[in-house]
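note to self — DONT lose this again. spent like an hour looking for the file last time. sequence + predicted structure for the chain T wanted, 193 res
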Amino acid sequence: MLSQNDDTTMRLTLRGTRTAMSFVAEARHLAIAEPYPEAGQPGYSALADVLARAVLFADWELVGTGALVRAGSTVRVVEMGLAAPFRTDEMARRITWRLLADASHELLDTDEIEDAFGQPLPIARFIARRRANRAENRASRPMPIGRIVVPPAPGVTVLDLPAMPLLPAMPELVTGTAAPGRVMPNPPKGRVP
């Protein structure tokens, strides 16, 4: 929800549960209000593929954002924004590497991207290492061994309790043969002797 303060600046406030779309709106607002670097990044076509989005939180507040898009044969970081205490190259790098990690399966044939400064960033080694780690993680997953049967401990007596009787079934309700419009009798009110 956008609200206007007394100094005529627009402020984005979110009410209720934060959804994915509200995060996108909040991230875009931060990227427009506080772009990093100061010049920002060039715009991109609405037809470009957004490969990943990343947000950086501090004390439940959105303080950094970025998106990775593919426009034709170019992959670049756009909508990079950082709030005042976090405006460092280190935070921009963290967001960039998070974007690359999330979109690594889309970047198999990409050797370099444009970072938030418009400079080429080689990523082939990072993507290869990420894929190798994922394959290693998949290979080390525990294999299901089936149902585990725990035998009773020796010397423990097993109580043989009688089965609880079931309520008598009403065949017309179970089989669905009750006549339409049939009214079930009301239970008696008050105490039943």
